[in-house]
Amino acid sequence: MGATALPPVLSREFFDRPAVEVAPELLGALVVSRSEGGVTAVRITEVEAYEGPDDPASHAFRGPNATNRAEFGEPGTFYVYRTHAVHRCLNAVCGPGRRPASVLLRAGAVEAGAALARQRRRPGLRARDLARGPANLAQALGVVDLRHDGQSACDVTADLFLAGPTGGLCREHVGSGPRTGVGGPAAGYPWRFWTLGEPSVSPYRAHPSARHRLGADS
Question: Whole domain around residue 78: which residue ranges?
Answer without folding.
Answer: 3-210
